[in-house]
Design goal:
The strands form seven sheets. Strands 1, 2, 3, 4, 5, 6, 7, 8 and 9 form a nine-stranded mixed beta sheet that branches. The chain is extended and about 125 Å long. It starts with a helix and ends in a 6-residue tail after the last helix. The chain contains 25 helices and 33 strands. The longest helix is centred in the last third of the chain and has 37 residues, at 725-761. It has 879 residues and is of the alpha+beta class. It binds serine.
């Protein structure tokens, strides 16, 4: 039975039993956290979880799948990367009994495989399935196996899963190991797991708990390759009609034959499997790259090329095999034909790329192996593996395979470290466009003669041709995934930053690659340059691209731009005609407007401006764009920017009868689209120039909501109505200030009480009391008051006080008049001591202050100060 007949029979069988056939989903899953589609049930997950309504409760499909776990194993007789899964699904409809009965009926009646060939397995706790197989289907108990392994899912850490029942095919004792324990689950190859019936009843939560699903579901999957092997009675999947034509084509290209030499066979199988995988991956939109699914593609493609070389093939050959794949599979997967051209281009490019370095890379590898073996080493250093990767394009796994073949291993951790170092280097260089802006100017000169046609007023998507590709320092012919580039197109819908309006972002998609545009600018007024990074695949000069502007962001910019014109018009009405635009920034959701005005705009003026703008928004005035001669536009009163150069014909943007400006920017078509404008600040930028900032559209609404919430929360905390909030805060501030004053007074009193004894006990130096003490006071004001207070009490003497307030040290020195007459100079004392505290100070002979940031030396400073006073009293000069 041909594989095409098996496919047909399967679908017919389940259609007769009320199943609706759904198409295979793409190999690129919709769930962004999943690398590739690995099972038919993936597209059913939202139905299993009850999140979406299925088109029908019984579904069936033939799903293309790609599994990466076994890539390195591929080459033996059973492991595969790409395969097709035949499945039937019940979304809360039938359950175990029907799933088992139908599988059995299909295998034994429709396909006519003798019943004694089949061995079901069940989960040890699943008594129902065991009973059903034995008593209802009639499989003898000795052919039913209970295996702990019979549990399937989830895909990833969380998701639907459940016990399963597998149906294994017995290929016969001649394929087996002969051990008494041999049975389904033994890896000797006698038993072939053919069909898996999963009873999806649980959902695994992130914390590991199993929650029952809202309904019980069925998910089954049968490998088309395996059932074809059985039905075609061949020795391995590679001899079925799903592989053999590809394998023999590869053999013909290489001039070898299958089944003559084990090593050759292995390479042929690698090539046959990988040719299928590569073709399907590329057709579903994957590009070779160094990351994610692009890396999976690169890995299998390069591995196939390497095995081609082992067979002596030195020219590109995978395109030829892709043709066979297209021929074999396009009736089921029509996108293979649609993508034919692209398939050839992408495959050939990657193949040629790798072919160029493969031979030298292999030579390098061999030299390395020699060297290591001579030195008695058995591990390939990470740096060397990285060099093979970086310079010769060897995926790490390829180096590992090569190493295994000669009995070596690779230092994987060392490789990862080297890779990380390289990533850091490229991160560090990512900003280099800006650093090199000056020397880049020369690169742009070549485009000066070819103005870019801007088509972005009318649409956000356009086809165009790449006319220039620039790297950081030189023009390029081609750039590939990861490269930073600047791209010039013959025409573009991307707005290049100008007139205050920021440039667009978006994507450029060619047949072979995708570039993410992060910024669009104009090195000269006529040339538009898209700056960004190749995300997937590659692009080259001369290629056609579809240029797609990020639409939501552009819409937000349009709102801001029209809002800017409204703010300008409102300003002039409220502040007078002398308020002239001096600059602006038009960005998504926000704007900044600089204008000449001699003084701060008053709150009531701001309110009036904002009200005018929002009234115009509500009036939903039309925005009209016209081209007319400059003189005519100016005569009609259109506003022009002072100092700006305009051509003979200008673009005039008129908003109802509110505003008319010369402007090249993008605007909404009616002011109502702006939604709302909220002024957020008014500041000064230079003398005579003020700046208004505003939010627009949804961002303005969000901000207003936040402010309302803050006000409501604060009012609630203070137990007043929102309207009385400001008044209440003012009242509280007054109360707080009064309390602070009172507190300071009390603190001073307390400090004084403690300080008085200091005066009384102060030792005298030649009859003059000298007080030098550290006090804890809340503020400098208190320290000062305290000082005065003590000076009065001391009658005759010197008072030096130190304190630490929030880690800063403060010193105060006071002397009575007679002490000054005896030679004391408070100013000099402080001047001398303050540096100890890391600061400065000084003052008059009777009163001085100082301090510094280092409070830890306060005691020392006080001691030095006292010594200084004593010296002064003794009439000694300071050294
Ligand atoms: N999800 C199960 C599997 O992949 C049955 O389809 O084996």
């Amino acid at each position: 039975m041909k594989s095409s007949e098996i496919r047909r029979a399967f679908i017919d069988f389940f259609a007769e039993r009320g199943h609706l056939q759904v198409p295979s989903s793409s190999l690129i899953p919709t769930d962004p956290t999943v690398l590739l589609t690995t099972a038919g049930m993936q597209q059913m997950v939202p139905y299993f979880l009850g999140l979406e309504r299925p088109p029908h409760t019984r579904l069936t499909s033939i799903q293309k799948c790609f599994r990466t776990v076994d890539i390195d194993e591929v080459g033996d007789e059973s492991h595969l990367t790409f395969f097709e899964m035949l499945g039937n699904f019940s979304i809360g409809d039938y359950f175990k009994a029907e799933a088992i009965s139908w599988a059995w009926e299909f295998l034994t009646k429709w396909l006519g495989v003798p019943p004694e060939r089949w061995y079901p397995t069940v989960h040890p706790d699943d008594d129902f399935s065991y009973w059903y197989w034995r008593d209802k289907i009639g499989v003898p108990a000795e052919r039913i196996f209970k295996l702990e392994d019979n549990w399937w899912g989830p895909v990833g850490a969380t998701g639907p899963n459940g016990p399963d029942s597998e149906i294994h095919y017995d290929r016969g004792p001649e394929f087996g190991c002969g051990k008494p324990t041999c049975g389904p689950g033994c890896d000797c190859g006698r038993f072939l797991e053919t069909w898996n019936l999963v009873f999806m009843e649980f959902y695994k939560e992130p914390d590991g708990t199993q929650r029952p699903l809202p309904r019980k579901n069925i998910d089954t999957g049968m490998g088309l390759e395996r059932i074809s092997l059985i039905m075609q009675g061949v020795g391995s999947v590679f001899e079925t009609d799903l592989f053999y034509p590809i394998l023999t084509e590869a053999a013909t290209i290489a001039g070898v034959r299958y089944k003559e030499d084990g090593r050759v066979d292995r390479s042929l199988r690698v090539i046959a499997d990988h040719a299928r995988g590569v073709t399907f991956l590329v057709a579903d939109g994957v590009f070779p790259s160094n990351e994610g699914r692009g890396y999976v593609l690169r890995r299998v493609l390069r591995r196939a090329v390497r095995h081609g070389r082992l067979l002596g093939i030195e020219r590109p050959f995978l395109g030829q095999l892709a043709e066979i794949v297209i021929e074999l599979f396009s009736c089921y997967y029509p996108n293979l034909v649609e993508q034919r051209e692209r398939l050839h281009r992408v495959i050939l490019h990657e193949e040629e790329h790798f072919q160029r370095t493969l031979a030298t890379g292999l030579a390098r590898f061999e030299a390395l192996v020699d060297q290591l073996q001579h030195a008695g080493e058995s591990i390939i250093p990470g740096d060397e593996a990285f060099r093979l990767y970086d310079t010769y394009g060897f995926p790490l796994e390829l180096t590992e395979e090569l190493a295994r073949e000669v009995g070596l291993t690779v230092d994987r951790a060392g490789f990862e470290r080297a890779l990380e170092r390289q990533r850091e280097r490229s991160r560090a260089s990512a900003g280099r466009f800006a650093d090199r802006q000056r020397e880049r100017a020369g690169l742009y000169a070549q485009f000066a003669e070819r103005p870019t046609e801007f088509v972005g007023y009318e649409r956000l998507e356009a086809e165009a041709t790449i006319v220039g590709l620039l790297g950081i320092t030189q023009p390029l012919e081609e750039a590939e995934a990861g490269d930073q580039v600047e791209i010039v197109l013959d025409r573009t819908p991307f707005y290049g930053e100008a007139g205050g309006q920021v440039g667009d972002t978006g994507e450029l998609r060619s047949e072979t690659g995708v570039v993410v545009v992060e910024e669009t600018h104009r090195p000269t007024p006529e040339v538009i340059v898209h700056r960004g990074q190749v995300r997937e695949g590659w692009v080259r000069v001369g290629q056609r691209v579809v240029a797609v502007v990020a639409a939501e962001r552009r819409a937000a910019i349009r709102r801001s731009h029209t809002a800017t014109h409204l703010v300008h018009a409102a300003l002039r009405r409220v502040l007078g005609e002398q308020a002239r635009q001096a600059g602006s920034l038009v960005a998504p959701d926000r704007l900044r407007f600089d204008f000449t005005h001699p003084e701060a705009v008053q709150p009531d003026q701001l309110e009036a401006i904002e009200k005018l703008v929002n009234d115009w928004i509500v009036s939903d005035a039309p925005v009209a764009v016209r081209y007319q001669p400059l003189g005519e536009a100016l005569a009609e009163g259109a506003m022009a920017l002072f100092g700006e150069k305009y051509g003979p014909v200008v673009r005039v943007v008129a908003i109802g009868d509110v505003s008319k400006e010369l402007c090249g920017g993008t605007h909404v078509s009616h002011t109502g689209e702006i939604g709302y404008v909220l002024l957020t600040s008014e500041t000064s930028v230079a003398s005579g120039v003020r700046r208004l900032e505003a939010l627009t559209g949804p961002a303005a609404v969000r901000r207003a909501r936040e402010l309302v919430d803050v006000a409501a929360r604060s009012a609630h905390l203070l137990h007043v109505a929102v309207e009385r909030l400001a008044e209440e805060v003012e009242r509280m501030q007054q109360r707080l200030r009064a309390q602070e004053r009172e507190l300071a007074r009390l603190a001073a009193e307390l400090a004084l009480e403690r300080a008085v004894p200091l005066v009384e006990q102060a030792p005298r130096v030649d009859g003059v009391r000298v007080v030098s003490a550290r006090l804890e006071v809340p503020s400098l004001a208190v320290l000062r008051r305290l000082g005065e207070e003590l000076r009065e009490r001391i009658g005759s003497g010197v008072i030096i006080l130190g304190t630490a307030i929030e880690n800063r040290a403060a010193l105060l020195a006071l002397a009575t008049r007679d002490a000054v007459e005896r030679g004391v100079d408070a100013g000099r004392v402080v001047e001398r001591v303050a540096p100890l505290l890391g600061g400065r100070g000084g003052g008059r002979a009777d009163r001085a202050e100082g301090g510094g940031g280092d409070a830890s030396r306060l005691e020392e400073a006080l001691a030095v100060a006292r010594a200084e006073v004593e010296r002064q009293l003794r009439g000694e000069a300071t050294s």
